[in-house]
């Protein structure tokens, strides 16, 4: 690294010494007698104060442009009057490592879509966005701490599939040496194969692909999925218990590391959830919602976004809890591989987890009995041939298992109170967006 | 989880008690007076010993098939004569949670390709393969420990790109809502955009895709890449220093957690490398190799696999070190975005890292000066238009930076002494393999 470089957040320890700060020109105030440059790095901002003297430094400061990458060497001086940390740098040398063209293509008034075209500038100039990726890192760290402690193995399953097996629709097709491959919509089949392979607890964070022409604030064609699959479960309750413990651990870690900064930059408080999270069956949820006037036609099998928000609000009012597991989804709106309840074959042993009204996870116990699985696939009109590799995994001793898939962007979205999943990704991908 | 379940490795603590073991039927020995079942779970194997008594248990044992998933409840008994841990289980109940069809499609004599068709059975039945994924998990954990401590941010960059920009060849094309997208060959452009976005140190583990019709033991069409990119470097030496520290930390962690098991199952010793690793320029490496008779025609610009093995062997003999950085690759065999040496424009500030003769990493300082980058792209015959989004990142203050890309499978391959990258993946993908 640039050897004498000191991050802005550490400057206080260097008062009286000459150091280098590497960062970007945040603002320039070139006055008649004085030149002020605010330099920003990934840790904060500092004022560089130069008194005009007709020397070479003065000319260099005059030529600076906003967002240029600079290395400024100078003495750190205590300066109680300076708002930024009560110190300033008196410069001795300025090096422009990469000049920025003027004017910048975006400013504070630019709308979201155009800011996304210049995402690197948008992220760099907004400390809140920098914080978002720090929070994401801590989130993943927290989840890994928890799952590793439970004995999970981190797997990387293929994103290229030979057949569009899980569901023909909404799958991207890839040209593959004269034939077709398909992008995995989730690691579902492969993480179940890992269970059949004797991996006791599977964990994966990776991209998932959905060829859905959805333009909502919560959909993307590519997003980061967090997947867990657990062998030898007694029932779906084991999966829900695992998830709520994982989230409680992880959110506590985020609150500890970034709670204050999140409150400052996003205006939201990170509440560490208590466990267990509330649980409500789909049937009960619908009854509660219908009493409140939801779905007056009485035709909806699934919760729509309005239903999700309402039931979450209801549960939060009743229990004070931001999370709720909706359980026992009807067979008609769940995939063939979800296990059905032994005492009611019209419902699956599945759940969604809602957080403040948004679905962040889908999970289930999986059907591991080959004959039952075949029957359920047939009922959904699916042909066994294209998924024979998957089905074979259930013919040679596949243990009972279940798991969950979580959208990392959605978790960030709710945690930070963002309006759109676009803001929770570094480089968003949607039906109309493949760049930058 | 199945509530009374005890992992095999913990049975010693339960001698005298009744517990349940969940696992697979490893072997059956059904003798005239006695029935022995070896049950295997993810932690080890245990003998279940049943004396024939014409009861229902006897019939259940008689009907068992190898690899069936079973839950066996019984008393743990000290039995010094039993090789497996000096104990056995005297069964009280047997539950077949998922029976295995006989015969199994693979056995110990099956070749690699067919074992790959039944990878879940191959992995489940071979403790060495189970260990491989445990080692992979520890590897990633070790790398993350190191990079987080250095202040890295974990990023997830898109795998879907709007243009096949890095290099037109060897890119998979994806149908994308009536137009084409391309699968990222590496996070190269996006991790550099993250640097331009003010992320100080970028870390990503994720899939990369290569549409190369290569059938060697070291190539795959999809593999797991480990990517690092560092801002504000003084030079490529900073990148090499980062990598050697990261690897030394990580390999020490693997040696500590799995060294003995690796020696037992793979017959190789994990040596924790000292730092710094040896460095040799490409020019010097070629001179050394040519003295030994390599490339008698004198035409090779790059090292071929034989050259990589020979120079590694030479360095190991000279220094005792398993690793060697080959530096200063000629411009002709490096991409346009590698920075060139200020004092010799025919070489790049780049490196490969070889481990025991296999390339495991490529790295470089990147060219961050827009005009120089444009010129270098033009020299390689590349048109700027399709990569304008990437190039724009260098027009608004992109700091000096560099990074590396490492193949996780290759690291595992060398560490465990595997013959082929196929063995280092859970589900391998090659030109002829998209299943299971």
TrEMBL record, chains A, B:
GO terms for biological process: aspartyl-tRNA aminoacylation. GO terms for cellular component: aminoacyl-tRNA synthetase multienzyme complex; cytosol. Keywords: Aminoacyl-tRNA synthetase, ATP-binding, Cytoplasm, Ligase, Nucleotide-binding, Protein biosynthesis. It is found in: Cytoplasm. Its EC number is 6.1.1.12. InterPro entries: Aa-tRNA-synt_II, aa-tRNA-synth_II, aa-tRNA-synth_II/BPL/LPL, Asp-tRNA_synthase_2, Asp/Asn-tRNA-synth_IIb, NA-bd_OB-fold, NA-bd_OB_tRNA. Its main location: cytoplasm. The keyword Protease does not apply. Homodimer. This is Aspartate--tRNA ligase. It comes from Streptomyces nanshensis. The gene is aspS.
């Amino acid at each position: 690294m640039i050897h004498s470089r000191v991050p802005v957040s550490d400057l206080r320890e260097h008062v009286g010494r000459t150091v280098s700060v590497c960062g970007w020109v945040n603002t320039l105030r070139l006055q008649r007698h004085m030149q002020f440059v605010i330099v920003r790095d990934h840790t904060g901002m500092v004022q560089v104060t130069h008194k005009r003297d007709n020397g070479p430094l003065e000319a260099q400061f005059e030529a600076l442009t906003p967002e240029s990458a600079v290395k400024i060497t100078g003495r750190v001086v205590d300066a109680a009057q300076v708002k930024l940390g009560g110190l300033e740098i008196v410069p001795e040398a300025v090096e422009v490592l990469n000049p920025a063209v003027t004017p910048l293509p975006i400013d504070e008034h630019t709308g979201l879509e155009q800011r996304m075209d210049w995402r690197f500038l948008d992220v760099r100039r907004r400390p809140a966005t920098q914080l978002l990726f720090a929070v994401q890192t801590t989130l993943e760290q927290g989840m890994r701490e928890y799952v590793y402690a439970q004995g999970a193995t981190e797997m990387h399953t293929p994103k290229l599939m030979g057949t569009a097996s899980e569901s023909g629709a909404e799958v991207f097709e890839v040209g593959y040496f004269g034939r077709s491959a398909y992008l995995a919509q989730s690691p579902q089949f492969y993480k179940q194969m890992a269970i059949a392979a004797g991996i006791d607890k599977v964990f994966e964070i990776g991209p998932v692909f959905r060829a859905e022409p959805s333009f909502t604030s919560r959909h993307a064609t590519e997003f980061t999925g967090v997947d867990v699959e657990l062998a030898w479960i007694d029932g779906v309750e084991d999966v829900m218990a695992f998830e709520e413990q994982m989230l409680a651990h992880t959110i506590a870690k985020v609150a500890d590391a970034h709670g204050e900064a999140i409150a400052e930059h996003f205006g939201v408080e990170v509440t560490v959830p208590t466990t267990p999270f509330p649980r409500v069956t789909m049937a009960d949820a619908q009854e509660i919602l219908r009493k409140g006037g939801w779905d007056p036609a009485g035709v909806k099998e699934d919760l729509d976004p309005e239903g999700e928000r309402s039931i979450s609000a209801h549960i939060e009012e009743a229990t004070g809890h931001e999370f709720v597991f909706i359980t026992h989804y009807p067979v008609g709106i769940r995939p063939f591989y979800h296990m059905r309840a032994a005492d009611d074959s019209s419902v699956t042993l599945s759940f969604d987890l809602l957080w403040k009204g948004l679905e962040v996870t889908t999970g289930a116990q999986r059907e591991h009995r080959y004959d039952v699985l075949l029957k359920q696939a047939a009922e959904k009109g699916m042909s066994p041939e294209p998924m024979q590799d998957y089905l074979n995994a259930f013919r040679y001793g596949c243990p009972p298992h279940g798991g969950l898939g979580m959208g990392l962007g959605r978790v960030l979205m709710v945690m930070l109170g963002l309006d759109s999943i676009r803001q929770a990704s570094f480089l968003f991908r949607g039906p109309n967006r493949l760049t930058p």
